[in-house]
Amino acid sequence: MAFCPSCGSEVGNAKFCQNCGSAIEQNSSPNSKFCSNCGSEIDYKAEICPKCGVRQVGVSSQISEKNVWVAVLLSILIVGLGQFYLGLPKKGALLLILTIISWILIAFVIGIILYPLILIYGIYDAYTSAVAISEGKHVEDELFGGKFI
Question: Considering the entire predicted model, what is its pTM?
Fold first, then answer.
């Protein structure tokens, strides 16, 4: 996600900030964001800007003591539950909705093929997300990198 270097608001893939009209440079690193006060590029995990000293709004650390195998087991029981456990509610809700749709489609046979694919992906995503979070890496709460939604 890109941020405006002038005002710090989210701009997505836009070339200009809708909030202040500043031009957006697309060369920032994926592990950075912009300070909401001074617009300086800072690490995405920074709670306080090193340049101006202002605490960043909405900073939530994903680094926690989440057990990888609990996330996997929850995803095996109910697809998407492992993502909820890891604090990734968008992924969890979307996987749960896809699972319910695949159960309905079992009546039309396609669900028999679709459900195992969703189950395997949900388990894989819960495992890789839990490992990344336990290593202190940032994990996006978007399924398939946010390309489809």
Answer: 0.57
